Amino acid sequence: MRGRTFARLLVAGFLLQGSWLAYSQGPPSPRPLRTERVAGDLYLVSGDGGNVAVYVTGEGVVLVDDMFHRNHADILAHVRTITDQPLRYVLNTHQHDDHAGGNAPMLPIAEVVAHRNARANMVARRPPYFEETPGTPIGLPRVTFASELSVFLGGKEVRAHHFGRGHTNGDAAIYFPGLKAIHTGDLFLLPGGPRRAPADGRPVGVPIFVDYAQGGSFLEWTETLDGILTLDFETVIPGHGPVSTRADVERFRADLETMRTRIAGLINEGRSRDDLVSLLERDYGWRATGCPPSPPTAGCLQYQQVDALIAELRE
Questions:
Q1: Distance CA 146, CA 163 (A)
Q2: According to the model, what pLDDT value does residue 298 have?
Q3: What percent of the chain has a predicted confidence (pLDDT) above 70?
Q4: Can you say whether residue 182 is alpha, beta or left, with left for phi > 0 and alpha for psi between -120 and 50 degrees?
Q5: Phi-psi region of 68 (alpha: psi -120 to 50; beta: other; left: phi over 0)
Q6: Boundaries of every domain in the chain
Q7: pLDDT value at residue 251
Q8: Residue 204 confidence (pLDDT)
Q9: Considering only CA atoms, which of 118, 120, 128 is closest in space to residue 166?
Q10: With a cut of 70, which residues of the chain have pLDDT below it?
Q11: Which among 84, 16, 2, 76 is positioned nearest to 50, based on CA atoms?
Q12: Strands 60-64 and 52-57, how do they pair?
């Protein structure tokens, strides 16, 4: 029973992290959002799509991510419950539309900033790209950066860092040095809450998606997390899930490496693709059964890019 619960939790994490809906489905209604204080003038808005950070200064507000296009009005309403300061900046952690889908309606009222690779991915839209509802407007950032960018507003600093590839090739970690806090985007996530040790001898794993179509890398992900861990922080807003700690990121990094090492070992032992897919589905909660090769389908993007994963991990 505990093993089945663990598997279901991982599957739920993938669905939360991706929200990979089939093209045939209509746009869902926005889900209720909630707001909580993280530390000082830093708040979290969550409930639908990726976590949104709200940083209040005396000269305006900085957002990190803006969920789906459908969440725009609700996010602004929640910001107004916190402050009457105007929205000035939106920093994207990456381009997936559960994190940057609200860019288009933000552009008339705020400056949107992202890593240059994230913007390029929005322009290229290489399939299977993340798009919950075809035709949703894509808001292209007007400001991009290569490795680091700082926003100074009201005497406070917000710093965007790009430490390398992982979830995509354009992941940004957003650092609030005055609060020793960070928003990791989907480089670190805890959907469903804190993870527990696997039951019934199941191998250690983490609920990640390597978006190879958008330049992601399983091999380089731990190095990117190592870059994040050079920063002085204790409080963490993950891409999905509750406010966490530095120790949670360290544990996630170790478990990711354990999972990758095992999968790479099996690939280099000569396991067949079918055997590997069955293992990923059984031990790590990937969905493969019932998944078509294309188009991008609910919960199936991990499986649909498994050939790229095998190619990267094969020595």
A1: 10
A2: 72
A3: 85
A4: beta
A5: beta
A6: 2-313
A7: 95
A8: 80
A9: 118
A10: 1-27, 126-134, 193-201
A11: 16
A12: antiparallel
For residue 5, give Cα distances in angstroms to 12, 228, 284.
10, 31, 12
Report the alpha-carbon distance of residue 93 to residue 205 in Å, rounded. Answer: 23
- Enter the tokens of residue 124: 């290229």
Pairing of strands 244-245, 181-183: unpaired
232 exposure class (CB count in 10 Å sphere: 0-12, 13-18, 19+): exposed
Report domain 2-313's class. Answer: alpha beta
pLDDT at residue 46 in the model: 96
The predicted pLDDT at position 15 comes to: 39
| pLDDT score, position 132 | 61
Reported as half-sphere exposure (CB side, CA atoms, 13 A), residue 229 has a value of 17
pLDDT of residue 126: 65
Are 53 and 237 in contact by the 8 Å Cβ rule? The answer is yes
Tokens of 199: 């039951």
Q: Given this model, what pLDDT does residue 2 score?
A: 40
Sign of CA dihedral 250, 256, 259, 260: negative
- Going across the sheet that includes 181-183, the strands are 148-153, 156-161, 173-176, 181-183, 235-237, 244-245
> Is omega for the bond preceding 242 within 30 degrees of 0, making it cis?
no
Residue among 259, 153, 156, 166 nearest 214 (CA)? 166
